[in-house]
Amino acid sequence: MRLAHGLYGLPEATFDEHHSLVLAQGQMPNGVLCLLSALQFHGITSQLPREVWMAMEGGSHRPRVTGIKVRVCRFTGDAYSSGIEIHKVEGGSLRIYSVTKTVIDCFRMRNKIGVDVAIEALRDALRSRKTTIGELESTAAGLRARTILRPYLEMAAAS
To answer: What average pLDDT does range 127-133 have in this prediction?
Structure first.
């Protein structure tokens, strides 16, 4: 049966909670799941995004996506290419940013998603031991986001 433009599945197939992510990835093969969608996938947020958040390389062509709402963020250089993990879901592959990279991106894009969401992601990621302050600091340095993240890391270390 047809799932979306260019995507087909078996009629008896069962879908899990990541089905919309698989549909988005199938229609945007060069995209990477980011921000709220990555937080939800990694289980470090209470937010339920209404759309799938995908990162695309700056200047690349945005394909037409049907069947789901997609919010595109443009990243360039290391901000786009670093921290990508491949996860097997529903028989397909998802390109998604790591927990550490996702938390840093939340602070870099805090004007789009909100500071409260970024702080919640930081606390949940540290509390669940999916990342450490050291990993966050070293990754933030590579992404030139250390000054943005530093006050929030100090606050998290104090609590």
So the answer is: 96
